[in-house]
Amino acid sequence: MTILVTGGAGFIGANFIIDWLQTRDEGVVNLDKLTYAGNLRNLASVEGHESYTFIRGDIGDSVLVPDLLVEHKPRAVINFAAESHVDRSIHCADDFIGTNVVGVYRLLDNVLRYWSELPEAEQAGFRFLHVSTDEVYGALEPGAPAFTEDNSYKPNNPYSASKAASDHLVRAFHHTYGLPALTSNCSNNYGPFQFPEKLVPLFIHNALAQKPLPLYGDGRQVRDWLYVRDHCAALRQVLETGEVGEVYNIGGNNEKTNLEIATMLCEILDEIRPGNGGESYKSLVSFVKDRPGHDRRYAMDSSKIRRELGWKASETVESGIRKTVLWYLENQDWVAATVGGGYRDWIRKQYR
Ligand code: NAD
Ligand code: DAU
Which residues does a 6 A CB cutoff place in the pocket of ligand 1? Predict the structure, then answer.
């Protein structure tokens, strides 16, 4: 038995594959285009594993995808592949539409053809799990109840609009053609192998280099933080016992402002790697121009997945952030190999 993971060389996909191979006796085929965010170093620990196969390619490639489906005969597809960074989507959304909308449509179309030709028993057991985001629901007012699966879609930036489009396509392929699809919408992840363009790894990286920690606007925007391995555990649960056609919200129940996250990161670094010339790393925090259209607050109500599938997060934000800081400190060679020319160009463009 095999599953097909798309986008498995990225942050969450790589954590998912590593965990999968540690906890399951089932093969994984990883289809990844290796964009700037895809990094085979994330998967160095499973390279050569007898149950792991890597294929470089695009989810929107309608020659490659049908061929690999027929060759590897996966019993499930888990779609992580996406352009994922909001700030990049604000600079230019072309790749977001190309992968998150057109790519997902082509992937669905090719998976549908493959699924339609499976024997009946295999059709019944097949799953297409689409990994999506809380951002599709838009922004919450302070004090408003957390997003449930019944909230309407109100995406506010090009990234979240492109993910919302993909969620609608998944829903339509299930409703119209009966493709056994499920969707998960998750809050902000952090943990090992996250590309240092996102808040947590960017701030750890900058702090260690004694560079400013650029907080957008007043730094009071709220996110619901989830340790990546908790997300991976939730996805395995959805794949195994989730109901076809359903949507599951996944969150950490850990609402924090960006300023609180920055402070937490600095305090952990002050404790385990003091070094900012004798000053706290907090002195590096610097308030910069806000992100256009910046969503003020996200929060996920995960009661459905807890009640129906028995999943809940195991890390608190304090324990997970500490583990993450330690991982980055112990993996500075990974960071050094990740922050090359393309990364520096992005940082210059975004924070000039
Ligand atoms: P990431 O940017 O780290 O990785 C994306 C991966 O997809 C990369 O390996 C990239 O090479 C690959 N990819 C991009 N376009 C592709 C294409 N056309 N064909 C094949 N591969 C392609 O992203 P991530 O943070 O790991 O997020 C994974 C998924 O989870 C995304 O769908 C994202 O929307 C969703 N998500 C992320 C978070 C988060 O906090 N990071 C939270 C909720 C949901
Ligand atoms: O909510 C889920 C989403 O979380 C995922 O769908 C996205 O793929 C993922 O990138 C993430 O989106 P965010 O925009 O919330 O993540 P990011 O790390 O870019 O930003 C987190 C918060 O920190 C956000 O309010 C913006 C702020 N921020 C971010 C950066 C990079 C700063 O203040 N300064 C920064 O330099």
Answer: 6-7, 9-13, 31-35, 37-38, 58-60, 80-82, 84, 99, 103, 131-133, 163, 186, 188-189, 195
